[in-house]
Amino acid sequence: MAAGSSRPSTLDLFAVCAPGLESIVAGELTALALAPETTSAGGVSFRGDQDAVWRANLWLRSASRVIARVGSFRVRALGELERRARTLPWDRFLAPGCSVKIRVTAHKSRLYHTTAIAERVASAIVGRIQGATVPASQPDAEDDAATGALVVVRVAHDTCLVSVDTSGALLHRRGYRLRTAKAPMRETLAAAMLLAGRWDARAPLLDPFCGSGTIPIEAALLARHLPPGARRAFAFESWPGFSRARWRRMVDAAQDAALPASPAAILASDRDAGAIDAARDNAARAGVAGDIAFTQQPLSSVRLPAQPGWIVTNPPYGVRVSDRAGARGAYTQLGRLMREEGREWHAVLMLADSSLGKKAGLDVRQVLRTKNGGISVDVVARP
Q1: Structure pTM?
Q2: Same domain, yes or no, for 114 and 194?
Q3: What is the domain extent for residue 280?
Q4: pLDDT (tens digit per residue) in 264-285
């Protein structure tokens, strides 16, 4: 959308995700009939109206946030930046009296001072939106914009791209995980593992290192066709013209269409009693406590159901939680379980060290490469 254009019915949108998850997000958009247009590092672009914004935030399981493009223009001077920014259709996204955070990046451009860029964009917003306020400090990269509006400004090669966040808190914050165990993984990454591993949501699923329950809870939401965003708020709810009644109808219709119970048996275990307690509490908040059988037990005590299914798990890395010897032992036991009882089972594992993966003795293929908690990881699958 060009600066100064009239208010369109269709928005240029971008689903942001962790590096490596772009293909998973693109597949989700396709399934939602929100046709992906361009895939680039860190996200997927698509187009849609207000309902598309709502639907993407409600349903995307592996994306981090959804942003809407406000405008794009060439710029080489701060005065020109402020003049062009004033012409953008801010009143479509920002309500009078709102608080606005501005995040800026600059790369290979005449304008490179991010604080000065933020100040000029802030001046443009305050000059257009009555009562708007902009804090002096910029949010850092991990700021989740849980309160107020977030404007993202990217200046690269003398082109300024301005976007508004539609999500608010990052999308992995479903609202259910109030208790965590050691080394928790984000809900979006757990969902990506399930989608990349192509679990069919009908065969049994087991996570023998379940921690606070993220993988089995995401599996239950997926199996029941429950929208992951149904229990939280979004930034677009503060946009001018937002209809809470229409939004509630969309959420209620999605929940009403969900299955009453998971068609698949979902099993989760961990040796840590505190982790199991946390997992049960989180599952209850997610509304799927009845879909998951939690058991406190070590991997050596795990027995697989007779019906073949999927093991989807994030074993210890030997980096943050357990020592390396303990991690090697866990992989050895996991490999033995799958060779002796689970020869017909699929496996989806997250590995931070390929040498530990070899301890399992499984013939696997890489399906994702990304990061978990700042650690580079491979998600591998069998077969």
Answers
A1: 0.93
A2: no
A3: 187-227+258-382
A4: 999 999 999 999 999 999 999 9
